[in-house]
Amino acid sequence: MASLAQASTALSTSCKPTLALSSRVSSLKSVSFSITGKRFPSLSSRPGRLQVSCSAKPETLNKVCDIVKKQLALPDTTAVTAGSKFTELGADSLDTVEIVMGLEEEFGISVEEDSAQTIATVQDAADLIEKLVEKKA
Question: What is the predicted pLDDT for the residue at 71?
Answer without folding.
Answer: 96
